[in-house]
Amino acid sequence: MPKHVRAAYSISSLPAPVGQAIPFLHRKRRLMTDPKPLLKMTGIAKSFPGVKALDGVDLEVASAEIHALLGENGAGKSTLLKILAGAQSPDRGTISFDGQEVTLGTPQDSQKLGIVTIYQEFTLAPDMTIAENVFIGREPGPRFFINWPKMEAETLKLIRRIGLERSPMTLVRDLSVAEQQMVEIARALSMQSRIIIMDEPTSALSSAEVEKLFRIVRQLKSEGISIIFVTHRLEEVIEICDRLTVLRDGRNVGAGTVAETTIDGIIRLMVGREVNALYAHREAGEVGPIALAVEGLTRLRTAHDPHATELKDVTLHVRRGEILGIAGLVGAGRTEMARAIFGADPFDSGRVLIDGEPVDIRSPRDAIRRGVGLVPEDRKQQALFLAQAIRSNLSIAALDRLGRFGVFVDERKERDMVEEYRKLLNIRMASPDQAVGNLSGGNQQKVVLARWLALRPKVLIVDEPTRGIDIGAKVEVHNLLFEMAKSGIAVIAISSELPEVLAVADRIVTMREGRVTGETMRADANQEKLMTMMTLSAASRAA
Amino acid sequence: MTDAQRVTAESARFDWFGMLARFAPLIFLVALMIIFAVLEPRFMSSINLFNVMRQVSITGLLAIGMTFVILTAGIDLSIGSLLAFAGLVAAAVAKGGMQDRFTVGEGVIGWGWELAALAAIAVGICGGLLQGLAITKLKVPPFVVTLGGMSVFRGAALLFAAGGPISGFQPDFTWWGQGKIGPVPVPVIIFLVAALLAHIALRYMRYGRQVYAVGGNPEAARLSGLNVNWVICSVYVIMGFFAGLGAFVLSARLNSAEAVAGTGYELTVIASVVIGGTSLFGGAGTIFGTVIGSILIGVLLNGLVLMNVSSYIQQIIIGVIIVLAVAFDTFAKSRRRKA
């Protein structure tokens, strides 16, 4: 990688000056009414190959408090929670619980201390009863037997305590998402929890259900239980949390009481860096006519896929030669939208127009035939055949162009094609016969991009095009997107990294909870503005 | 380390284990042949070796079809039953009906071996197609569909044969199982030609790429615009084709077709494919490996027979070898991931 590229990018990894321009941080001392917090994590560090997920993070949670843990996607929240749950061990740092230093080597260690995590995707067994799920692995009864009446009675006590009006013998399958969440909470209570970690607990709930959840959370607090609350909805932080900790790029960038902060203040903390220093901009070129338009796209949740975000009346368009950025937090429905347009998932209503003509796309095959391509968000699961050669990976969608006598693959043409894209995209590989799984993430992504370029699409949707690849390869991928737009392709770029969206897009659409919440030209946008559009509902922004 | 450095480091380090894993079946086969040659002089005689190959060719034909199925991470347990049914239909066609089922010679008004072979293959293809449709349209796992098929086709065969075998065919029919071209038995030639064609299909045709893609990562294949259901259905049709062809050759070799033919073939055939290095998880494997795997099983059984090892013990050995072969595959995979 050329030296100057690295230099230009290293700014992103500089720590933000902690405490600077964060007024409420200074009042931290006064807040520590409890000199011995229930949980104290100090200097936690954790690295994965190529990524420093956490770099000396502190977290303090007092007893009977609701503590918000905030940060952008990739800020390090999940890693911190996994360490707390005993699912991963930190490289450095200490954890003390109730004044005692502890090691959380296994999930059992955490559970014994009373630290229980309720994940976004529930861990319930759908075909077992509420009672069985609450006491799974800890069924009351003598030795190998289960004392059913006792289990039922205790479950009943627990679920009534949090207001779940169901029989303990109801199958979990028959419960709503909100009720299943209450079963998870009941299970946490049955383990004598002292800290319950809730990861995005409201993302799948209706507003009435959120109110009910908040009543339960407040009740737990009054019983002396602490809650670590992870959410992307900042209004909720203001409404229910006592204190907060904000992470960015694996470091603490702020902590304080909620009463003394504002949503704007939190957004500044979460975003916190100078955009211009990060990525090269491009001059927006001439844009052509509308290549792809989506009107009123709606996709309801199905029993088949209960965790997918519902799409509600999504309308947008992209022009030839334009890069449309889609910004939104996890669960905003960006990926669901891309998959629906591409025919990978069905949708309930709305229509897709290509070059002004309504088209009926029912499968990725149809989409490809109409000139629409999708680079999916998960390269390894959804795009690559890891054990197979680079050339087969590159040519799989374009085999009909490499045909000989209709049925054979013309390997000379195929090798020429690989060579063409190897040069064009600067793919670093030993030979076209090398398994694609042996390439670095950046080069794997280039192979996926090459696959789609070889089809010469009209519209290319790229979902998280630079996830998990190093910064040098990121620049190359960005430049490639610019080249595509210049050649007249309409590009839709989905990214969780705001600096990336601001760097590549000509125009940006924001989404939240399956709806389009705003649209802006890149020239008029900045991270704070986008974060506001992404996190607040239309109603609270108007207020 | 930059990407460029990483690439050179990868290519510089020769992967001894990878090479060993790739040629393990062949190495094992050679070792086994040496052991038998030493222990039992009769083993290396050309008569015995051609005999082994003749026996291998039937299960080998089925194993070629099974390779396609397993490459898509599927399985077909119904092949033995389908083979019996197809064999009976072919026999009935060759005899011109169900009368005179034991008569040989002048009195028989048969329809000839051509039509008999076609009938066997047609039955096989229809059986495979039905199962392929059940897997892709009804979304029933291949294991269950073909377990059902195993029972259905066996029942159909018993019903069709009404209990007894059909035997005594014209010499031009039996030539396909008993004849020789030079010193080489005809079934062996059929097997090797079929293997060559299958190798070409998988290695050089667009269809082959699609089979590997669907087996390697069905979601990625779908998002690359492949018709995944069509590919999955097609491998069961190919399997059916080979079950039909195998039925024809087996009936010709035995000069008889009966409803209990092919019992237990699924075990031998799946073992051949797996020992040949095809991954039960799909997406990896070769026809070359399957040919070696089939011969390996044939040699093993033949050697054990020559050494008077009881057929019960042979079954135990085959079972253990299947499990070990899959364990080796899993082990090699986890090593690759770590590297």
Automatic annotation (TrEMBL), chain B:
It is a multi-pass membrane protein. InterPro entries: ABC_transp_permease. Keywords: Cell inner membrane, Cell membrane, Membrane, Transmembrane, Transmembrane helix, Transport. The chain crosses the membrane at residues 20-39, 60-93, 113-136, 143-164, 184-205, 226-250, 262-281, 288-306, 312-332. It holds the Pfam family BPD_transp_2. It is found in: Cell membrane. PANTHER family: ABC TRANSPORTER PERMEASE PROTEIN YPHD-RELATED, ABC TRANSPORTER PERMEASE PROTEIN YPHD-RELATED-RELATED. This is ABC transporter permease. It comes from Kaistia terrae.
